[in-house]
Amino acid sequence: MLKITKFGGSSCASAEQFRKVKAIIEADPSRRFVVISAAGRKNPKDNKITDLLYLCRAHVDYHVDYRPIFEIIRGRFLEIKHELGLNTPIEDELDACAEKVPDLSVDELVSRGEYFTSKLMADFLGFPFVDAVDVVAMEFDGTFNIDKTTENLKKVLEKNDRFVMPGFYGRTPDGAVKVMSRGGSDISGSILARCLRADLYENWTDVSGFLMADPRIVKDPKNIERITYAELRELSYMGASVLHEDAIFPIREYNIPIHVLNTNRPQDPGTLVLDKIDDEVDGPLITGIAGKKGFLSIEVVKRNMSNMVGIVSGALDVLRKYEVSIEHLPSGIDSFNIVLAKKDVEHNLYEILADIKERIAPDSIRVTEPLALIAIVGRNMNARAGSSGKLFTALGNAGVNIRMISQGSSEIDIIVGVANADFDKAVRALYQSFAR
To answer: Is 337 inside a domain boundary?
Structure first.
């Protein structure tokens, strides 16, 4: 079996965590291609290495001495090296990087977290180190050149039957280092899995896969053992942030499963992400519940709207003008609601409302905020009657007023809008009703 194995920053935060990674690699000879994130927090009071590198850059921009911050970074790496008795001579590279901080691009500077962590991990595992700039080909806009990356990988594999590679960054056509969005090491692993046509992509983190609800809200929620790409996409978008939501796209075309596992509890089954799961008559009604706060709803009322052309599109044209993304658009005969992230319109909401009034002359327009959205996601909901009724009953019994409800055409999710103040209570009520 050909596996791509990725370890998150929490798995690389200390010498102790490095030892756990090595035990996992040695337990399975098929784990030959390893992707590494930058070292995370050794303890809750620590900063992540990536955050410290961004802070170095901020110090440079504001003409403040960055060297004390870089010394913390240097100390973290050397502590791991010395505790493990490694031979990698990273001191010289760290010192050279410290001198060049003011001259490095932001992308190259913050990529050094993955670079130095991977150097140490390669030494500890006894694997060759392969730099991501020699493998991952990126365009100037941040998209991936899969053909070029595949070509680069073939050259690497001519010399190495195993390797450790940093995640999070690649190289643009002009040779510059370019980083991905935060959590991008998940995408790096996914890219390698696609290019190598791997049988499995393992993603090791600090939790045992996906949970049915946020453990900060629901006590001891059940683990999700299996989930489809589509369900994962819905839950990730709504706040279940175990795996970067864009990590799905590179491998979905080839039906490569993702196995999300816990470095600290490798015996746990984790969560297996698959393209399709056969119908389960006795399977759980829902897969998971996730949600986010910080939305608002613009309610537009116009009598006889159903007999007019261009009313909704007129309002959407206004939002396009202001480059505002729409979350949901539930509608009725004489009204429709536009649900938006509040942060996207906090500086120009009144201008948007004025433009909508001028464009479509509504009978009334009203803003409801603050609003929270909760997604109830499950591949089995569309085959069983009563899902919506169960949802209404659970929230009604909990005294939660539903401000909005929407169901996608795929019928794998139902999304409800509730007041921000009711968010935790609503999540707990839904979990207690659906997760039995």
So the answer is: no
CA 272, distance to chain mean position in Å, is 16
Picking from 55, 79, 78, the residue whose alpha carbon sits closest to that of residue 67 is: 55
Sheet strands (E) in 17-158: 33-36
Contact between residue 352 and residue 319 where contact means Cβ atoms under 8 Å apart: yes
Question: Has 114 been labeled as part of a binding site?
Answer: yes
> Is 205 annotated to bind ligand?
yes
Number of domains making up the chain: 1
Rounded to an integer, what distance in angstroms lies between the CA atom of residue 379 and that of residue 277? 9
Q: Are residues 427 and 291 in contact, defined by beta-carbon separation less than 8 angstroms?
A: yes
Does a structural domain hold residue 421? no
Do 228 and 252 contact (CB within 8 A), yes or no? Answer: no
Query: Could you tell me the pTM of the whole model?
Result: 0.86
DSSP state string for 236-275: HHTT-TTS-GGGSHHHHTTT--EEEEETT-TTS--EEEES
Reading the block at residue 306, the tokens are 């159903």
Q: Is 206 annotated as a binding residue?
A: yes
Pair of tokens at residue 180: 């991905």
What is the distance between the alpha carbons of residues 239 and 290, in angstroms, rounded to a whole number? 6
96: in domain:
yes
Asked if the structure places residue 280 within a domain, the reply is: no
Q: Is 8 annotated as a binding-site member?
A: yes
- Residue 152's domain is classified under what CATH number? 3.40.1160.10
Question: Do the annotations mark residue 9 as ligand-binding?
Answer: yes
* End-to-end Cα distance, the chain: 36
What's at 408, amino acid-wise?
A: G
CA R_g for the chain: 24
What's the domain range around 131?
A: 3-197
Token pair 């996207």: residue: 344
- Pick from 357, 343, 355, 433: which is nearest to 397 by CA? 433
Report the C-alpha gap between 110 and 104 in whole angstroms. Answer: 9
10-residue mean pLDDT profile of the chain (436 residues): values are: 94 95 96 96 87 96 96 97 95 96 96 98 98 96 94 95 97 96 89 95 92 92 91 83 81 92 95 84 82 94 88 94 92 91 93 95 92 91 79 93 81 90 96 86
- Residue 170 annotated as part of some ligand binding site: no
What pLDDT does residue 436 have? 67
Contact 39, 77 (CB under 8 A): yes
276 annotated among ligand-binding-site residues? no
Q: Flag whether 222 is marked binding.
A: no
Beta bridge partner(s), residue 274: 228
Q: In what order do the strands lie in the sheet with 404-407?
A: 335-341, 288-301, 364-377, 413-419, 404-407
- Contact (Cβ atoms closer than 8 angstroms) between residue 312 and residue 336: yes
